[in-house]
Amino acid sequence: MERQVAAKILVIDDDSTIRLVVNKALQKQGYEVILASDGQEGLERALQVRPALIICDWIMPGLDGLEVCRRVKASEALTTTFFVLLTSRGDPEDRIIGLDTGADDFLPKPINISELQARVRAGLRLHQLSQDLQTQKQLLEAELLEAATYVRSLLPAPMTGAIEIDARFLPCRQLGGDCFDYFWLDPDYLAIYLLDVSGHGLGAALPSSLVLNLLRSRSLPSANFYQPDDVLSSLNEAFQMGNQNQKYFTIWYGVYNQAKRQLCYASAGHPPAILLTPTVEGNTQVHHLRTPSVPIGILTETTYTSDRLTIPENSILYVFSDGIYETGQASGHSNWGLEAFVDLLVTLKAEPNLNVMLDRVQRSSGVSTFEDDLSILKVKFC
Prior knowledge:
The chain is an alpha/beta fold. The chain folds into two domains: 8-143, 3-Layer(aba) Sandwich (Rossmann fold); 155-381, PPM-type phosphatase domain (Phosphatase 2c, domain 1), CATH 3.60.40. The protein has ten helices and 15 strands. The strands form three sheets. Strands 2-1-3-4-5 form a five-stranded parallel beta sheet, sandwiched between helices. A five-stranded antiparallel beta sheet has the order 6-15-14-11-12, with helices on one face. Strands 7-8-9-10-13 form a five-stranded antiparallel beta sheet, covered by helices on one side. α2 packs parallel to α3 (65-74) and α8 runs parallel beside α10. The radius of gyration is 30 Å and the shape is elongated. The termini are far apart.
């Protein structure tokens, strides 16, 4: 039979008599008791042994019980430790102060041994529950990290050559609803797309990964992958939100004919792709590439249309999700939005590094972290 490990209880009190009484009462119950005569010693012992429960006197010289409690609750190593304040102060205002500081329970003076033992048993039950929840949280985080690693492994590597493609994928959580891909349909035709599933987390990541695998393997029934409008129609038929846990998604899908330098594209509720082309005067012309339609999965009867244009040499195409320009608006920065983002792209057209551009986005939008999933493709047509 497996031997149970005795729970560790730390008792902090400057009164040696109280330490002796509490020590004997708890040792009789089979607990491992650690003693400290002041707050500083108690904190040091707490970090050394990581007790399941701490009983600490409120009034002590040096660090009093409230300060010990505050520091214990601020320590990551002691997040599940149950903290009991030992006090002769019985006013409700005092208890409020103790609870606001982080105390989990109170034990009145003079100490009643039966009450002491009962409160310890209750505190240890809650400590065990907290530990179980912490373990489950760690397991869930590990599984989410594994899923996030899988999703990232699906994303394509940067492309070099006559067409250069770089990309960034920044989910606001470990998993997000953004997804993108680019691949050659044949030696002359390159497919490029980016989609954004409603919501965040695992519920959004699953359908985005499914769409990526379907498009990459060209397993979408009846879809002509050379015709963007046909791809969107097939996706809309296959991913109605009523069958997808009420999830819908936006998408921009384009096919580039390398021989003719023609880009055919279609979008479904997605932000416009931004094409920057050089002019003979040395300026930059901005094209908003979007076809009007609703997101995938909202309406069963939806017509999608394609458009096309010729791509001049040294043009740059940006395809992105709305998280890159809506973050600042959500934070109250009214000067930031799609138009401001496009102006920034024009300013940074010669900057080859997407990290620099994202840093400028954060500074321009006034946010330190992006509040929505964010993905962006930078396609340079040499």
